[in-house]
Structure formats: structure tokens, C-alpha cells
Amino acid sequence: KRDSMEIIKINANTYRIEDDFVRMFLLEGTEKALLIDTGMTTANAKEIAESITKLPVELLNTHADTDHVGGNKGFDKFYMNQNEEENFRRHGNDYGEIVPVKEGDVIDLGDRPLKIIDLPGHTPGSIGILDVKNRVLIGGDSVQDGDIFMFGPMRNIQKYIASMKHLKEYENDFDEVYPSHGTFPVNKNLIDKLIHGATEIVEGKAIGNQKDMFGNKILHYRFDYAGFFCDDK
């Protein structure tokens, strides 16, 4: 467990901010910078971003689970898929203007276009961000080698499988994936493996181990490439 966060430079204009178990990103263009997610306990996420870049900082959320919006209060507005607003508000977040983004929208930071890809399933409004010129996908929680939360309200494993298949339509546009949890980076061939694992769960071919999590009885399916926490039906 880290006592403090780490800011790690990926390349000349891209940073990852490691906050214990969750990861944020700061992307710089020629005109502005974009912070992707604000962690769980980082109320000062905006100040951290502004300490890295001299450019004006905007915020985009991959989704609204509590470990990704901890510092959103520092921003008057933020980009988020509209289908995620219910998830955001149900945690008592009554602040901030949501600037809706959806599949095909492009946020240009100045010579750095970022294309939005809708990836519902983990949450209703989960998105991926295609960093077009750098050929990188920022995948949020949907593409990672850790354990993907699929239990409780807002989760839909069928939609998740469909989203991963949809993501493969873009696979010639990126070389690697920057996930919010787990190993950094991950190979894009993980997407096929996640489709396979989630499909095995749906078809009843995978065996899960019963666990208690946050007072919920869940099933943990662990494959050699990633895991899923699912409802214990």
C-alpha cells in the first residue's frame, strides 16, 4: 500500500497518476490538458494535475464509480457519458455540470484528438478513450487484468460482452491499452480473453468461488489473465 501517490511520466505529454489501487491519466495537447478520472481519495486531483502542466485542465470520467470521481468537486464541469449520470448522482454527488460525451465524439486538446467509444456493461455509461495519434486506448475498468466488478446495481455482463466485441472494431486503431487498475499497460489481445471469460461465466462453464464483499455474497471468477466479481445467483 502506498502512503502517497506517484506521478509517472509516460512520454513527453502523457502522465499516469498512481493513487494506491486506482490510476488516473493526464494528457496534454498544444492548447489544453485533460485529466481522466480523479481517484478515490484525491480531493485535490485538480491541484495535482495543475502541478504537472501549465495548460488549462479539463476533466473526463471513464465512469462514475466512487474510486474514479473522488476529486470531481474541484471542477465546475466534467465530461461524462449521459448514461452514467444516475450512477454518479446515486452516490450523493449533487455538484458539477455534466458535459455529455458519447460514441464518436472527439475532444481535441490541440493537435491531440481523443475519440470516445461507448463501452456499457461494467456501468451503463462506461467509455473508452482512443488517443488517436498515440495509438493508445484508455480503457477505464473495462479492459484490465485485475478483477472487474460485475455485481450489484448498474452492472450488465451481457452488455459488457457486447461492448468488448464492439471494441474489437477499433483494434487496428490502437497498439496497447492503458487500464485504470492492474498492470500498466496491457496488450490489446486481452480483449479477446475477456470476451471468452465473460462468455464462459454467462454460459455457466466457469466456476466461481463464493466470497463476501461489502456485505454482498458474490462469486469470484479468476482466470489466468483477469477476474470478474459477479452476483451469486
Beta percentage is 25-35%
Mean pLDDT across the residues is 96
DSSP helix fraction: 10-25%
Spatial shape? globular
In short:
This protein is α+β, with helices and mostly antiparallel strands and about 230 residues long.
Descriptive account of the structure:
- This protein has 233 residues and is α+β, with helices and mostly antiparallel strands.
- The protein has 4 helices and 17 strands.
- The strands form 4 sheets. It has a 6-stranded mixed sheet with strand order 8-9-10-11-13-14, with no helix packed on it. Strands 1-2-3-4-5 form a 5-stranded mixed sheet, covered by helices on one side. It has a 4-stranded mixed sheet with strand order 12-17-16-15, with helices on one face.
- The chain starts with 5 loop residues before the first strand and ends with a strand.
- The relative contact order is 0.12.
- The mean pLDDT is 96.
Tell me the layout of helices and strands.
Layout: E1 6-11, E2 14-19, E3 22-28, E4 33-36, H1 45-52, E5 57-60, E6 77-80, H2 85-89, E7 97-100, E8 106-108, E9 113-118, E10 127-131, E11 136-140, E12 147-150, H3 157-167, E13 176-179, E14 186-187, H4 190-202, E15 209-213, E16 216-222, E17 227-231
Parallel strand pairs: 4-5, 6-7, 11-13, 12-17
Antiparallel strand pairs: 1-2, 2-3, 3-4, 8-9, 9-10, 10-11, 13-14, 15-16, 16-17
Helix pairs in contact: 3-4
